[in-house]
Every structure is written in C-alpha cells, then in structure tokens.
Design brief:
mainly alpha; two-stranded parallel sheet; 3 helices
Amino acid sequence: SGIGSESIALHNMNIPYDKRFCSDKSESKRTLMKAVAKHLGTKTGIIFEDMESRDLNNMPTADLYVAGPPCQPFSKQGLNLGLGDASNRGAVLLHCVNYIVARANPNPSC
C-alpha cells in the first residue's frame, strides 16, 4: 500500500470511498497511512502487516483495488527479474491478482 497516496488522490478528486484494507511490511509506512487517514478524516480499514499471509476467504470485497508492488523486481535496478526475484518481492503482484480473482466485487457500485 505504501503511503496512502490513493486515499489522497480520491479525496482531492472528491470521490467518496470506503477504504476496506491496506497493507505494508514497514511499520513506519503503516503509521503514515494511519496519519493520512486521520488527516483526511477517513479510516484505514484492516491493516495487514504482510499481504502474503492474508486469508482471502475472510477479506472484504472491493469495487476498486489499488496496488503498488515493489518496483525493484520489475526495473533495471532489480535486473528485471520480476517474479524470479531472489527476494521474492515480485510475488506481491501475484497476491494482488489472487485477491482480485477471489474477492473483487463482480457488480461494482461505481
């Protein structure tokens, strides 16, 4: 999830939203997400420390799913290894796709 820039963007465009969940392994980024939500007068929803351990069957559905997988595995700096990244950072993208397939709302209200 990162720093909550999606919340800032939706807020600035006056698009109402209900943030269901977010995740980041970094404690400082999770703290920042909470501060952004407080500043915007919104909620963070469920905060996952590690999206790889989420139980898809118990997650809320969503009309919009915003994700920013780590860029290193998909960049020249990370040798463009993608899903073959030695640190397994590229696999975050698969967890995003798994959620969308399993839990995305098939009848979005937006």
